[in-house]
Amino acid sequence: MAIITIRELLEAGVHFGHEAKRWNPKMRRFIFEERNGIHIIDLQQTLEQVENAYQAVRDTVASGKSVLFVGTKRQAKELIQDAALKAGMFYVTERWLGGFLTNNRTIRKSVGRLREIEGIIADGTIDKLPKKEISSIRREKAKLDHNLSGIKDMTDLPGAIFIVDIKKERIAVAEAKRLGIAIVALVDTNTDPEEIDYPIASNDDAIRAIKLLADKISQACSEGTKLRTVPEGEVKKPRGRRTAQAAAAKPKAPPPEEVKSAAGTEVQAAPGEALAGGEEAPIPESGEPEDVRDLPL
Q: Which of 17, 169, 211, 217 could form a disulfide with 39 if both were Cys (CB 3.0 to 4.6 A apart)?
């Protein structure tokens, strides 16, 4: 089944680029034509790029890593947050703070402070403080929560980052490139696609286009998460009745005639064999062997 279709891309307006006079010549290979002063994106290439990005994101999540969704432009904020939460991933929808990735230790300290404030509010400790201090703490919490709510549970660097509008998020692109984090991004006709590992030629301003592609990346994350639950090569152990091989491997109990009793008495020797004292057991006169239990001790 196809991940996405040309029809879906057309209906979402993915093919509309920027004005021809605002284009970046490096996007030439992704442009189908110019119409009424607007560049039209080649959706056949976009289709292949979506499939490549989908597989890359799915494999990244399946390997145990996370994906960070980034979109701080007004029309992308809510869409990016919903897509990230749906997949259980992290997001940045407010201003990208310098050092989000490269100075992660400082960011973790801020997250720690946010958790500390949440703790004193939850256990009621804040109510014992002066009103002026309470007001100051609540303002601090609101500011931290505004910037860090989407990443406060992110303990490690992400394996990939999904970006809407790489011109606006140029700091995020630079930090990800510096750390070797894979970048999946929507590239419009006014951007430089050479900086992106998995570019998706697309309109990065239309709400429907952003929603469609963000949902596909979210779907890839969800699929990768499912692949985590059953590691490759793992075989589930059979339950209930044991297999024939397991039963055959169990050692059989020796016959009772060959085992000592619990009281320590030894099994009697057959007629003609040596007893424990060195004497031989008598052979019956009839020539018929008697039951070993009837032989004299």
A: 17
